[in-house]
Amino acid sequence: MPDFGKLLREKNIVFVTLALCVLFYLISPRFLSLDNMSAISRQIVPIGLIALGQFFVVVSGNIDLSMGMGSVLFAIVLGVFFGLTGGVALGIGAVIVCSLALGFFNGVMVAKLKLPAFIVTLAMLFSAQGLSGLIIPRGQQIFLMGDFFRFVGAGSPGRGSTSSSTRSPR
């Protein structure tokens, strides 16, 4: 007969996840609906991609505290470039250049100069936060209203609008 205590210790995250799903279903039966599961699946992708990158950093014995604020900075760069040019390709190119520069800087500081990854990435977190605040003061919003963003934001083909307005709704 299998040892339930050992199974619980080894697979505790599975049991906790199942228990939370049952609890959320009891609170709201719509939790397990197809629409809700689809929405959760779409919303978890950006966090999952960041977690995948963080996984490789942690496996190498380091930590990167700047990933979250870096992604905020990259979203702002994309929004600003799109707002200035109306072109998505240039904005994506700027994001790639920005992310490579941030990663290169962190990598050089940690790998070549042998500085602690915690300190380097903490400093980069605050730098990215400061740059974000300089680009978008007082937490202003950027409205991305192009067809590309409607298509991506819809989550599935056919749900986005076909309008090509790039104006802010305000």
Can you characterise this structure?
This protein has 170 residues and is mostly helical. It has seven helices and no strands. The N and C termini lie far apart (66 Å).
Mean pLDDT figure: 85
**Rg to the nearest angstrom?**
21 Å
Low-confidence stretches: 160-170
Distance separating the two termini: 66 Å
The portion of residues assigned to helices is over 70%
Number of strands: 0
Write the layout of secondary structure elements.
Blueprint: H1 4-10, H2 12-27, H3 34-59, H4 67-85, H5 88-112, H6 117-135, H7 147-154
Helix pairs in contact: 4-5, 4-6, 5-6
Q: How would you concisely characterize the structure shown here?
A:
The chain is mainly α. It has helices spanning about 5-10, 10-25, 35-60, 65-85, 90-110, 115-135, 145-155.
Task: List the defining traits of the structure above.
single chain, 170 residues, mainly alpha, 2 domains, 7 helices, flat, disordered C terminus
